[in-house]
Specification:
By secondary structure, the protein is α+β, with helices and mostly antiparallel strands. The protein has helices spanning 2-17, 31-41, 46-54, 61-77; strands at 20-27, 85-103, 109-125.
């Protein structure tokens, strides 16, 4: 029992020392569209990344901005210095596909593939 308690404490300590993270799963936009924005904000200070996303004319900008805001809130909960936060890593993973069918002529159907994505953001303090 003691060993399990010690392992749990070690995991908790590792999470407390690590970067502040936020995740958004199965968002209804293709990963390809989000990766363009992820490459833009990766490595930026958080304030600059949020400003950049606010003025982007892309479909994924408000979604990615919301995830970064959530990561900032998680960093605030961990008592991290918000002025020194940097977007350490942004991962965009391809999720499942929603399949729909569009009726066509002569009783045929055309498939429609609606792409889904997972977003993982981690923020770290710049030294």
């Amino acid at each position: 029992m003691r060993r399990e308690k010690k392992k749990a404490e070690n995991r908790k300590q590792a999470r407390a020392d690590g970067p502040a993270t936020a995740h958004l799963k199965t968002v209804r936009i293709s990963a390809r569209k989000l990766r363009v924005l992820a490459d833009v904000v990766r490595g930026m200070p958080v304030e600059m990344a949020l400003t950049t996303l606010a003025f982007q004319q892309r479909a994924g900008a408000p979604i990615l901005k919301k995830v970064i805001d959530s990561a900032v809130a998680n960093a605030d909960t961990r008592k991290m210095d918000l002025d020194k936060l940097v977007v350490a890593d942004v991962q965009i993973d391809k999720a499942g596909v929603m399949r729909r069918f569009l009726p066509r002529a002569h009783g045929r159907a055309t498939p429609i593939r609606k792409q889904l994505a997972h977003i993982h953001v981690s923020l770290a303090e710049k030294k």
